[in-house]
Fold this protein.
Amino acid sequence: MSKHLDDNDKIRNYKVLIYRRIVLLGFWLTVSVGVYRLVVEGVNVSLLYNTFFAILFSSWIWLFHNSGDKYLKLFEDVFFWILFVYFLLIFAIDATNILGGQGLTLHTTQIWAPIVYVFAFIIFPPRRAVLTTMAFLLGTMIFGLIYVTRNWGAPELGDDILLLGEIYGAAIAYISLLSTIALLKEQYVETKIQAQLMTHLAHTDSLTGSYSRKKIEDYFELVLEQSKTTAQPLSILMIDVDNLKKINDVYGHDMGDYFLRRTSELLRGVLREQDALGRIGGDEFLLICPHTNLEQARALAKRLEATISSAEYETIGHGTISLGLATYQPNDTGERMCKRADQAMYAHKQAKKM
């Protein structure tokens, strides 16, 4: 069966792709705004901000290009705390009225402040994200309180208090909404994991790790139908683990279980990507081999038998298997193929006793 990246790898790849676009966009925006301010306003504090972020964005562009997701966590942590401090500093400057002027005049960059809340819930677990964003909100409240205290009695203070109230109310709404989404996401992921686990248990034999009987029968039915439609060759191998009863009697059932697990692992190690192995009985396995003709199936059977006979088993020493194969014939059914493979396997087992 084909191999896929797990969910965490996919998320990391998506993040790198998105962050690369964000830092590239951020670089061009800061450079463009910086050039405009230099031409129109000359050298000032805002131009220094733009220069700092342009250098920061360019360094992360280089890092993502050369290192992929190696420094993803470092990027997220560093970039978040830069945003955290930057927007808190801008709010502090506005609220403490260092820039002068009458009334509370917020810097235009404050419209980007909510990105702190969003980014926190993207990179941190829900609990840490809530604590971090609440710390940011508390910081803005402290500076807002300083502003109100300094300007108590001013005629425009009432409007300023309403403005601060809207800012804090919006921040609480952001945090509440994002935390709800994060909790719903956690529940979804947990439910998905449970569903995957149940599916895995339903499709996998708990002792050997091979496919369950139902799963291998369903797969057989699917590839058999494909062979009928496309005229592609199809072979199956019926595999019986020799002397399992004797091993159970002499060494105990725990050793018998170990013998089955080890044999299943060895068999799966030889198989190709499209092959599927399933346990259909106590000591019997069914191997489905799509796109495999008679000669190829015989060669595979020899490799399987040689692999088991040459392997070392703890306490037991060596083991053997008996195999029987059947190849699809026109108008064949799964039942007929299994019967032929079973008969061939029984004949192989009997021949070894002579």
Remarks:
- The beta strands are 234-241, 276-279, 284-290, 321-327.
- Confidence is low (pLDDT under 50) at residues 1-5.
- The chain has two domains: 7-200, 213-353.
